[in-house]
Design a protein that fits this description.
The protein has one domain (3-63): Aminopeptidase, CATH 3.40.630. It is 34% helix and 31% strand. It has helices spanning 3-18, 34-39; strands spanning 23-29, 43-48, 57-63. The protein has a three-stranded antiparallel sheet with strand order 1-3-2.
Length: 64
């Protein structure tokens, strides 16, 4: 997993906390970064299969 992806994900979480948000939701495609979100403590709450070439869309959430 790319270090920059983890740093960016954690940075977005920090911005959400500083902004007073209670939670953070984000989406990604299976060829992008679902593993990064899981590694950063996000919980997957939805997905849609059926995109071309076996790609899946994933949605993640994290309480802050």
């Amino acid at each position: 997993m790319a270090k920059i992806a983890v740093e960016r994900t954690l940075g977005n979480t920090k911005k959400a906390v500083l902004g007073g948000l209670l939670g953070y939701n984000s989406g990604t495609m299976s060829f992008q970064a679902p593993g990064v979100y899981r590694a950063c403590g996000y919980e997957e709450f939805g997905s849609i299969d059926g995109y071309p070439e076996g790609v899946t869309r994933h949605w993640f959430t994290k309480a802050l």
